[in-house]
Amino acid sequence: MRRMIALVTFTLLLLGAAPALAQVRAPVGPGGLLYWDNATRSYSNDRVTQQKVLGLLIPPSFVATQRTTNTTTIWPTSAPISVKIIGQLTALTTVQAALGINYGTGATLSLINSAVLTSANEGFSDAPFVLTVYLVPLATTSATPNMSNSLWMQAKFATAGLSNANAGRVEYTARVLGTSVLASPTELNIYWHWLGTAVASGTSSLRVHSTQVKIGL
């Protein structure tokens, strides 16, 4: 497993094949890179519990904003935090899944909401996928901590079947206007959950090959 890891203190809780706990205390890498994990992890066929793909503890200073009379200015706000996860998706026909993202009590997204990922005619077999999440602190006209409408979170999940990319193309996007939590470090969580009845003829799995977290878009 290769890792490039962060400035300040990030705490990562990566379940699966990765260590349960890792401290991130290294200089920021090229391009504002905070964390880079190339440990392959597989999330397969568990219909009972949601599986945590990423848990990232974010210090308040990374989402802090200052009061400004002009909310169009960029200077009083922290730079956005972006998360990019790539890997492979194997989903049998008519299998359902859910993908949820939350930033503590500040913002929650149901990016894939109990949806059927494939058609009845074509499943995905090791199809490449990309998941991106952006946390964008917004300038406000008040210095009140934890002010509503002070954080923009958006996410996108995209994949396409290799044998028939047009027929098997799936893309989900979601966004929410939330709250920057400034009182204490707050965990950004990403969860995957397989749903519906398991197919006896095979296994559906989400395999994560690389996770990257950085400052900036």
Summarize, please.
By secondary structure, the chain is an all-beta fold.
Helix content: under 10%
Number of helices: 0
Over all CA atoms, what is the radius of gyration? 18 Å
Strand content: over 45%
Q: Which segments are poorly predicted (pLDDT under 50) over 5 or more consecutive residues?
A: 1-26
Task: State the end-to-end distance.
Answer: 25 Å
Number of strands: 14
Summed over residues and divided by their number, the pLDDT gives a mean of 75
Main beta sheet, described? 8 strands, antiparallel
Structural class: mainly beta
| Morphology | elongated
Structural domains: how many: 1
User: How would you spell out the order of helices and strands?
Assistant: EEEEEEEEEEEEEE
Descriptive tags:
single chain, 217 residues, mainly beta, 6-stranded antiparallel β-sheet, elongated, disordered N terminus
Topology:
Blueprint: E1 3-5, E2 10-12, E3 22-24, E4 33-37, E5 41-44, E6 51-58, E7 81-91, E8 96-103, E9 107-116, E10 124-137, E11 148-160, E12 169-179, E13 186-195, E14 205-215
Antiparallel strand pairs: 1-4, 2-3, 2-6, 4-14, 5-14, 6-13, 7-10, 7-14, 8-9, 8-13, 10-11, 11-12
